Amino acid sequence: MASIEITNARKSYGAVDVLHGIDLDIQDGEFIVLVGPSGCGKSTLLRMIAGLEEITSGDIAIGGNVVNDLDPKDRDIAMVFQSYALYPHMTVAQNMGYALTLRKTAREKVSAAIDNVAGILGLNALLQRRPKALSGGQRQRVAMGRAIVRQPQAFLFDEPLSNLDARLREQMRTEIRKLHRRLGATSVYVTHDQIEAMTMADRIVAMYDGIVQQVGTPLEIYDRPANIFVASFIGSPAMNFLSGTCQITAQGCALILDDGTSIPFLAPPNVSNGQKLTLGARPEHIDIVGNGSAPSVPATVDLIEPMGLSTLVHVTLAGKPVKIFTLARPDLAIDSTIEIAFNMDKTHIFDSETELRLPRANEPFAAETA
Amino acid sequence: MDGNKPVTNMTDVGKRPAARRGVFSRRLSGILEPYYYVSPAVVLIVAVMLMPLILGLSYAFRDIRILNPFSGGFVGLAHFQALAHDSAFLGALINTAWWTFGSLAFQFSLGLVLALLLNRQFLGRRLIQALVFLPWAVPTFLSGLNWAWMFNPVVGPLPHWLTSLGLMDTPFNILSDPDLAMWGPIIANIWFGIPFFAITLLAALQSIPGELYEAASIDGATTRQKFISITIPFLAPTIAITLMLRTIWIANFADLIVVMTKGGPADSTQIVASYIFTQAFRRLDFGYASAIAAVLLVLLLAYALGVIALRRAMTHADS
Amino acid sequence: MSTPGKSRLRKTAYWGTHYLMIAAFVAFALFPLYWLLKVSVTPNDILYTEGVRMWPSRTTWDNYTFVLTQSHFPHYFMNSVIVSGFTALFTCIIAAVTGYAFSRFRFNGKIVIVALMLITQMFPLVMLIAPIFRILAPLGLTDSLTGLIIVYTAFNVPFATFLMQSFFDGIPKDLEEAAMIDGNTRFEAFRRIILPLTLPGIAATLGFVFTAAWSELLFALMLVSSESASTFPVGLLSFVSKFGVDFGQMMAAGVLALIPACAFFLLIQRYLVQGLTAGAVKG
């Protein structure tokens, strides 16, 4: 197992820059998830680590050695592809043993390794089958097995679960995490699914537009997103955003929305009167309150989505859609007007211009913004 | 710990000098790799096709007659000037168009029908497919000889059949009638060329996703509507490219004519390609033959570029 | 709404027409071959008197025994097998690596090479005979099977390359990337992972090239002068000049010559459609 250090790595195709200088240190044994919308450069970064894409400039080191100019075969990494990329003309056993065979490992050792990994993944009965005769979930397992058998320096995963149905995906998510705990292998996992990122990562790397937006543990990213992109991308149902103008009065700060609605908030340092701000509140941080309790704002009920454990209430506030998450089962009429209150300790304030979050002074582990 | 650091800064961390060796050689081998793959083909094509072509084009400006030891001199554009007044060449140009489009129209339409027939599941389909594709494997000159034989009223059944059908008054050989002779090689060419279109079009048909037809059926499309709105648009790219390549190929394809009619009677089946053959190997005038070939090459290039430009204009108009 | 009876009637009518048309195609494809066979087994003395009969009153194998025992035909036949076989083999190897490069790499000059290959498809090949002779003669490659193999390979490489490229286009890039991560160089990945997957495509290409080389007459005629290096199409022509025009023997030789080409073709024709389909899916 090894650490991976990425220093100012850039990638461009001709005049088009895809990655604008990525810095990332991945600890030995860490499970890192690169997450972002399609086209953000996460897959390109993964393929650069694998050696499938040239690095335009910068360095990538695996286990302390710069590997920029090594072929994929000399990097001692394993990769699980979205399409699984199983060799159709080989059996499951041959697929899993291919890398070891290429290394001229003794035949008994290869089959012992295959048997061992097949046992871990429950593939023993399938070893003599061809990929064509396997279900999607089984193929996924074989692809995992092929990577594990090699005991590489690092595992790379390129959206490995996106071709599975929801239930299987959930199951494999848990299984990959358990495997990681068992093998302790350095892993880099690319996904566009923020739930996978949240549930699997030791640390999440949120990317957008070829730039790393934020690196942190899932809860750090969830609780203290660096900017509007990260705040909106991570979390489901997504964070609500309301933009307006900052008004500082003797009573405190308030955000004045377009229609004049005033939402009070705890001001971060250095906000000024008249500054354009965006308020971000996660659905679980907005409460439906009874009439009269201050400070609340009126909203119209659009839709109620009961999800069993919880309920999602869609309302309109100052012309903008807002989602509210509640564990209660509120009895609300569609089109009725209700009062909602923002949990001021938990709502975020972003500068509308820079889109960066403005941390409050008393915030624990205050974010180091650049 | 990185914490919440949006990494927009571009700090240039000191590069580790280790493991830098081999950079150049790897980059270079990475750049050179594709050329290793294509070099055998390129060398072969340049040596055996491009160089001879250039040499051949140079003959067009020289007097090269095998039987005349004093030939070999540079004659400039003389061959091309002669060509402009060569009525046999002008006739051959018209015959080439006739031969090419006559063959192509039937090869394509019958090939498409055959492909559509073979695209359905039915009993014995595999065997039938193998049988109807067989003419493709028959050496062309052998099929030329055989068809010439079959058109002969003494030893072939075709004239008698045509008479029975009332298409002929008495059995005679169409290959010796200047008005009809071209049909002989064209029919042989149709026989030989149907499988090519059937194979390519069948492959294209089989790559159309079945869901499309199912979706269209649910939308209430009739068989004919499905053919027009799904089959034809999906086949269009294959049709366009194969028609273009085949046009050029058939225009250059003289074997059947040389074997069946030798261009006769009275030059009525002489196409440009067979005329080149006649000039080069009957009259042994390689200079003149090369000049004709150069003109044919230019015409075919112009045709191909025209078709490509037309296609591009049409696809642009679509989008 | 149509009643079930009506739709069954329509179905019967459809399949009736379908089989009728299929039968017409089969008849059109096979009748000339049947006639070839008929002429080859007709005794010489009734060749003309019974010329238009569907089957002669007497048949004979004399033409075949003569061709096989008294003529050079077996020798021509072997030459053709050698030339076509090696042409098909070399063409496939060269077309496979070139087609792979076209499918997987972006490189400077690619468009020039593609254009060059397309243009070669437009050459009036007749024009190339004399120049090729002049280039090959000093190398001692005229009047030799090697020379023919080289020329045929060059002629067939462009089309075969485009064919192979379409097969490679149908195979996901992930596969060789997985192999490269597993420890292969790119070329090893191509050879051990990608090539085995294109076997139907390779079979189709082999078939195309083999039949093309098998029936080529013009260059075989012009580049080869000695009997020892003649392929069977040339031999068939020499039949004409040597024994007058003995059609019975010539047709017998023709039937024999058809056998390998047809056998080969029947073996691979399934892959032809299959291979082209696989290529078309992504291409």
TrEMBL record, chain C:
The chain crosses the membrane at residues 12-37, 76-102, 111-133, 145-168, 189-211, 252-273. Its main location: membrane. Gene3D superfamilies: MetI-like (1.10.3720.10). The keyword Nucleus does not apply. InterPro entries: BP-dep_ABC_trans_perm (IPR050901), MetI-like (IPR000515), MetI-like_sf (IPR035906). It is a multi-pass membrane protein. One of its GO terms (biological process) is transmembrane transport. Residues 77-268 form the ABC transmembrane type-1 domain. Keywords: Cell membrane, Membrane, Transmembrane, Transmembrane helix, Transport. It is found in: Cell membrane. PROSITE patterns: ABC_TM1. One of its GO terms (cellular component) is plasma membrane. Pfam families: BPD_transp_1 (PF00528). The keyword Transmembrane helix applies. Belongs to the binding-protein-dependent transport system permease family. This is ABC transporter permease. It comes from Thalassospira mesophila.
